[in-house]
Design a protein that fits this description.
- By secondary structure, the chain is an alpha/beta fold.
- The protein has one domain: Maf protein (Alpha-Beta Complex), CATH 3.90.950.10.
- The protein is 30% helix and 23% strand.
- It is globular, with a radius of gyration of 17 Å.
Amino acid sequence: MAAEKRRVVVATGNAGKLVEIRAALADSGLEFVTAADLGAEPLDVAETGEQFTDNAYLKADAYRKAFGMAALADDSGLVVDALGGRPGVRSSRFAGENASDLDNTRKLLEELDGFGAEMRAARFQCVVVLLDEKGAATWACGTCEGQIAFAPRGSGGFGYDPVFLPDESAGYTMAELSIAEKNAISHRGKALADLREQLLAED
């Protein structure tokens, strides 16, 4: 990769996600910007795919074409065994199309009401795709195993973080971890670490 930083537009309006991406890929030689940084509104990309890989590609490709530059997107979600894999690709819309993080978390806890700890196994999964200006793709993925807590804890993170207990966190929810601690074990952190290794190997 060139010594000067290449600009990459990130297909998200989620400030928390952008912080994680910038922190994990700080030494990648890339500068990550948003639609807002480019004077535009975030794109409303229909996430019609049935797999995380499908939706990540759809978002990255839409941003690449709209802004005429390299684009990065991820699709991630929570997979709960007792719910047959739901919410899955509908994690951000679990409680409805315009659901808030709180709405989705409440619905999850309601559906798991009465389930003991042994029935709350879950995992976060993430797929990240980086498309260069011509559409060539670099893929990375990550998984974080854990279980669903009985009640929210912590004020950090976003999404289902307050109710997700990673196996690697010694009893803390994802929302109780620092950005560095979260990136070290999270599904997105692992996917971004994989992507970082691939990018540095290209130098």
